[in-house]
Amino acid sequence: MTNKKYIVIIAGIVVAIGLFAGILFILSGRNKQVPPFVPRISTYDVPTIKESQEIEEATIEGIPSTVVSKSLIIRFEDDITKEQSQAVINKLGVLEAFNIAQHIWEIRYGDSVDLAEKINEIEPIQEIKTVGYNGVYKLQYKPNDYTPQGSNSESWWLENVNAKTAWDITHGDSNVIVAVFDQPADFVAPDLAGKGSQIIWPTPTPAIPYTPTPTLSATTTLTPAVSTPTPAVLPGADHGSHVSGIVGAHTDNGIGVASIGFNTRLLSFPVCVPLCEFSNMIASFQEVIDRVNAGENIKVINQSYAGPTEDTNIHDMIKLVVEKGVVPVAAVGNDFGDVMRDENDNPVLDGNGDQIPVSYMPHYPAAHSEVIAVAASNSTNQLSSFSQRNDPSSAAQLNQWVDVAAP
Description:
CATH class: Alpha Beta
Number of domains: 1
Helix content: 10-25%
Number of helices: 8
Largest sheet: 8 strands, parallel
Shape: globular
Distance between the termini: 21 Å
CATH architecture: 3-Layer(aba) Sandwich
CATH topology: Rossmann fold
Number of strands: 15
Strand content: 15-25%
């Protein structure tokens, strides 16, 4: 089996365990050669973290979806320069704008606005290719009583994937980097210290917005809406630390947990801070592309969030990282047998006031064909009851989007 296949298998295992596993207790020694925080290298902007995030419901491609209030994502035509983009944005009456990837911007309004009306106003602008909501995916649920450190039994999830046999072949490669798109991971804590770094994200204050002035010329350069970054506002979080630990926590040290590819290096992207916003994902994909172009050996992107809303910009960014030789992996969702819910866990209703079943509904980004979509299996090697899955009906046989299941 090739090294690439092992990377794919390891990444798939990581996501599936991260779907339902609990808090990672981080207990081992520290290697100071890898800094816990590293600055971004991309010349593109990254959205500042909002101190408070308002959400609302919108319909995207017929699917009721949770979106970020006061925020839209616009994409300019490929022949439009950054200066021309800024001139157009100047006339939109926005509070802040972030050039998060090539030709792609997040724009924010200062006051509550009708986003659907704003989309209708912006769509006819000749220089703009697409405009849409800044959607939100959900981190996959994890129970708070899952504590493998307290168990005297064998780690069945490792047994089920034949981890011991795999370890006789490889422990992972320190030259290989796995990017974890999640909550920030705690690389100061002992069992992750020295195993990777967290990308520094800009802080909520003091953000430097520009003031839009309709009379500015098309060549006016606007002040970037970014702030001085500091890692202090992004302490490690349970979900991001746990998933990172499954990938590459210190292993064979008698404490903590055993990770799958424990020699693998980690790079944590604070995508869910706290909401898993589309704009953060797009900015993170751009950062991966820029790092690969700079010679960094990022081979896998792990994404443990999901939602039924498909986004063209995210899909296009996924295609770009695949072209760079990076394997994207994603969770398929843990809401089988449930109904669609918003960020507050309340049922979402359709236009008739009915709840919307989500069983067999494709979840993104896992459902994109370039992504390895991973379902969750249980201790008996069967699909977990809560895991999304392929529709077994004959009518759905051509739309089988789930690729693999693992603990």
